[in-house]
Amino acid sequence: MTCLVNKRLLTWTVVLFLVFNVTVTVVSSSSTSGHHQPIVCWQAVLQCQADPDCRYAYSQYAQACSSVLTGRRRSCPSHCVSSLVQLNLTAGGPALERCDCARDATCTDAKRAIEPCMPRTNGAGAGGCTEARRECENDAQCAEAVRDYLLHCRGLLGFTGNDREGACTDGCRRVIARMRTMPKARPLDTCVCDGAERNICEYVKASMRTLCYGPRDALYAGSGFFSDDEDDEGDYVEEDYIEEEENMANVCGGNFVLVAMATVFGLTSVL
């Protein structure tokens, strides 16, 4: 019996040694053979797991996007998109996006499921709200429209004054409608809340949806490529996300986003 156990252990040791050496050889050759040949996805995963930052970001992505990957939902939770952004910022992240499934059906299905959630920065889809806000700030027409928004929609931001706190006036709706016609303002509609501005971004987005149009308004339903409705991923355990969900438990999600306006566009001077 002892001899049989030792023989099995020796067999598995040899197998694991061969697999490790083949993996190292393939990964090393792929890194020196140029950038034209896409890496196979299982190799990209191994490379990612060898890097602590990529390994952590990958685990967060797997948890945040689990409902999309398993087909339980079609829309992309905002924290899934955010996790993809963070994964792509690591050294091994871009290889995971460009990798070749090589006839692996499970890999192909996962790529197909997650593709609509991938952040885009080339105008073909949604990018980060920080960059969208900067683009708007550099455009005179868009920046002026945001100042009008701050004046007429202050109730959405929790400020009192001529506009009642927590109210969406007709003037506010007109400003929003006008901004949706501006090329530099439209990305604010579908951008992904990110960076240090994420909390206020999510708050304004939720206020806009709840107070101005309601969850089933035709203008907003499906206007972005992700949705925060029923955004209840229970297995995503990052502390800042849990705290954010608790703070917004009674507020529905929305899509039109105007971010960090108090500090960026001089809210105090307008008020």
TrEMBL record:
<feature type="signal peptide">
    <location>
        <begin position="1"/>
        <end position="29"/>
    </location>
</feature>
<keyword id="KW-1003">Cell membrane</keyword>
<dbReference type="InterPro" id="IPR039596">
    <property type="entry name" value="GAS1"/>
</dbReference>
<keyword id="KW-0325">Glycoprotein</keyword>
<feature type="domain" description="GDNF/GAS1">
    <location>
        <begin position="129"/>
        <end position="212"/>
    </location>
</feature>
<dbReference type="GO" id="GO:0005886">
    <property type="term" value="C:plasma membrane"/>
</dbReference>
<protein>
    <submittedName>
        <fullName>Growth arrest-specific 1b</fullName>
    </submittedName>
</protein>
<dbReference type="InterPro" id="IPR016017">
    <property type="entry name" value="GDNF/GAS1"/>
</dbReference>
<keyword id="KW-0472">Membrane</keyword>
<dbReference type="GO" id="GO:0051726">
    <property type="term" value="P:regulation of cell cycle"/>
</dbReference>
<keyword id="KW-0732">Signal</keyword>
<dbReference type="Pfam" id="PF02351">
    <property type="entry name" value="GDNF"/>
</dbReference>
<feature type="domain" description="GDNF/GAS1">
    <location>
        <begin position="41"/>
        <end position="117"/>
    </location>
</feature>
